[in-house]
Specification:
By secondary structure, the chain is α+β, with helices and mostly antiparallel strands. Helix content is 52%, strand content 25%. The chain has one domain. A two-stranded antiparallel sheet has the order 1-2. A hairpin with a 2-residue loop joins strand 1 and strand 2.
Length: 48
């Protein structure tokens, strides 16, 4: 499912992080650990 992403920028560095609440909600809906959802979201970010 869709997960929003936080974009943090400091000087010339940019950091992307999945929104915790979106990951938590998706984990509850799919009955899987939040760590699994968070890891899948991060992997998708690395691919893009």
């Amino acid at each position: 499912g869709p997960v929003r992403v936080k974009i943090c920028t400091f000087e010339n560095l940019q950091r992307l992080a999945p929104e915790y609440e979106d990951c938590a909600q998706l984990a509850r809906q799919k009955n899987v650990p939040i760590q699994s959802v968070y890891a899948a979201a991060r992997a998708t970010l690395r691919e893009e």
